[in-house]
Amino acid sequence: MARIVNVSAPDVNHVIPRRPYGSNTGGDQCTTYRKKERMRLPKKLRLPLAAIAGVPLALAVGGSPAQAHIAIAYHGSDYASVSSGHTFVTVYDKEADNNGVYGVFYLYDGTTHQVGDPNGSASGGGSAGFSAGVDWFYVCERNVGCSGVVNA
């Protein structure tokens, strides 16, 4: 008849007496050692946690995302845009409907400027540069209407 033996995992807190390193003395001198357990994250959590942890670092190193964008206001196919530095603007008439297109740009210094597309729906568009920088703007089509306000 076979004998059943209950085998359990070793106790993590089990104390193993050993002689200290570098000790030439024998006898009863013992040091306790504890087996170190390493915490392992499940594979499914490693990538999401690394991504979450990396976002603040990426923002600290790369600056804020608001500094590198181009803002665009649309009215149908016509549009006006502001560069990422907020100092250069363009206006394009993309509809051959005999309605001129212009952009209205409100600058940080409180002034307002209007820039139009001088050649209508032909290739190219209107552009201008401002030292003060654009705060907000919108684009309009004559005899039709305007887009909503866009923050630059």
Descriptive terms for the model:
152 residues; alpha+beta; 5-stranded antiparallel beta sheet; 4-stranded antiparallel beta sheet; 11 strands; 13% helix; 32% strand; elongated
Q: Helix tally?
A: 1
Measured as a percent range, the helix fraction is: 10-25%
Task: Assign the structural class, choosing from mainly alpha, mainly beta, alpha/beta, alpha+beta, or little secondary structure.
Answer: alpha+beta
**H and E order:** EEHEEEEEEEEE
Shape: elongated
What's the N-to-C terminus distance?
A: 86 Å
In words, what does this structure look like?
The longest helix has 20 residues, at 43-62. Strands 6, 7, 9, 10 and 11 form a 5-stranded antiparallel beta sheet that branches. The protein has a 4-stranded antiparallel beta sheet with strand order 3-4-5-8, with no helix packed on it. It contains 1 helix and 11 strands; from the N terminus they run ββαβββββββββ. The chain has one helix spanning 43-62; strands at 16-18, 31-33, 71-75, 78-82, 88-92, 101-107, 112-116, 126-129, 134-141, 145-146, 150-151. With 152 residues, the chain is an alpha+beta fold. It is elongated, with a radius of gyration of 35 Å.
Produce the secondary structure layout.
Blueprint: E1 16-18, E2 31-33, H1 43-62, E3 71-75, E4 78-82, E5 88-92, E6 101-107, E7 112-116, E8 126-129, E9 134-141, E10 145-146, E11 150-151
Antiparallel strand pairs: 1-2, 3-4, 4-5, 5-8, 6-7, 6-9, 9-10, 9-11
